Amino acid sequence: MIDFSDTARRWHDMGGDAAGPVPTDQHDFALWEKRVDALMIIGSAKGYFTVDGLRRVLEDMGEAAFEEMTYYERWIAAVNQNLIEGGAYTTAELAEKMAEVSARGATYGDAAKPT
Amino acid sequence: MTARVCVKSLVPPGHVRTPTYLRGKVGTIERALGAFPNPEDLAYGQPASAKHLLRVRFRMVDIWGAAAENPDDTLDAEIYEHWLEPITQDTGDAP
Amino acid sequence: MPHDHHDHLSPSGHPYRADNDTALSYWQVMEIAVRELLIDKGVTTANDVAAQIDAMDTRSPANGAQVVARAWSDPDFHTALMADASAATRDMGFDIGPLKLIAVENTDTVHNMIVCTLCSCYPRNLLGLPPDWYKSRAYRSRTVREPRSVLAEFGVALPNDMTVSVHDSTADMRYIVIPKRPEGTENLTENELAALVTRDSMIGTGVARSPNAKQPLP
Fold first, then answer.
1. Which pTM was predicted?
2. Does residue C12 belong to any structural domain of this protein?
């Protein structure tokens, strides 16, 4: 039988790969990051998606996303995609809301205040 | 006697929870964990069939061969039943 | 800026990152927009979001340390924990939700390490959110193949006659390591014992502190 495991193996399936030293820097979680986590818990508790669906979306985002985006940036992207797939709101609604939020100011503190 | 199993060398695309480094490897069942909805189905919003989940113990030498740091170190992983092939006395080692 | 009790110190005692003053990012805009849409549509409320954050904030390694200290002190609890760690931790009064927990214990001959190679599964409902290194490529890739090399980086040197048992959290279970009880702790109270239990010792990248050591907790 032909061994297709190298072709089929996906970026996230990394057990056993060579890698450098384990990075030791840690950070405490910013408020916006904790909110992402909360939205993940709430979205799955309300039945819009499962944690498996979240993982599937994260995997499908690909290796470049893992390298270039932070953990919670990838999570909000995935939570959002899962919510749209689950019918919580539409892309058009999100677009309008994001424009409204961006217009509030240049910092997270400003933008997180509803007008 | 602890049941020996071989992890199937399947190569599906998509969301699966059997790491490639364990596929084709032989281990023993450490404990049965009960049945859970198949994550491969849940990931795509489909009705999920219940699959039995097993903790399987592997010796590092049986995963990595000569590259193992210490042959007798072990690796335990939770593998769903449809990824496992039982090994009986008659079949001996898996192909 | 509206008053918000989250703005001061996080439960670890460190200040939050100054994200409120830094340039707004696309993903932060998305978080705000998603949250407000869900509230607008009645999926959730601002209070529920805040309550969820508060609930996660109460979950920290200190909870796991109490579980370990009790397992060291109380043989019946130890037995119950090894048989059904979820039930035993719930019986202690911890709200772990649907967490399916397995306790694995370090002995004179076995040292346990936990990893999730496929993503970042972690017993968050007991220990809180995982550290960044646990989610790194290096930890996820190397721990299942060269655990001793990873342990050495964390400053853990094992005697030659010990084996390492690595647990890859591939499915529905989550794991806590019960570190070995340090020498010279026979007369300590449970609270004093808990103070010796580090987060890393419950993941397996550390050991419990000696009562005489003067190191800060990681």
1. 0.92
2. no
Closest CA of chain A from C76, distance in Å? 34
- Answer yes or no: is the ipTM higher than 0.95: yes
Sheet holding B26-37, edge to edge: B84-87, B4-7, B26-37, B50-59, B74-80, C163-168, C110-115
Of the candidates C86, C116, C169, C201, the residue annotated as catalytic is C116
Same domain, C114 and C96: yes
Task: Give CA–CA dist C157/C41, Å, rounded.
Answer: 54
Domain B4-87 part of CATH 2.30.30.50? yes
Do A22 and C37 count as a contact with CB atoms less than 8 A apart?
no
pLDDT in tens, C111-159: 999 999 999 999 999 999 999 999 999 999 999 999 999 999 999 999 8
Would you mind telling me the total number of residues written for chain C in this entry? Answer: 218
A28-111 classified as CATH 3.50.70.10: no
Structural domain count of chain C: 2
Residue C66: inside a domain: yes
Q: Is C45 left (phi over 0), alpha (psi -120 to 50) or beta?
A: beta
For residue C153, what are the β-bridge partners?
A: none
Interatomic CA distance for residues A33 and B88, integer angstroms: 50
Q: Are residues C84 and C185 both part of a single domain?
A: yes
For residue A56, which of C143, B48, C176, C31 has the smallest C-alpha distance? B48
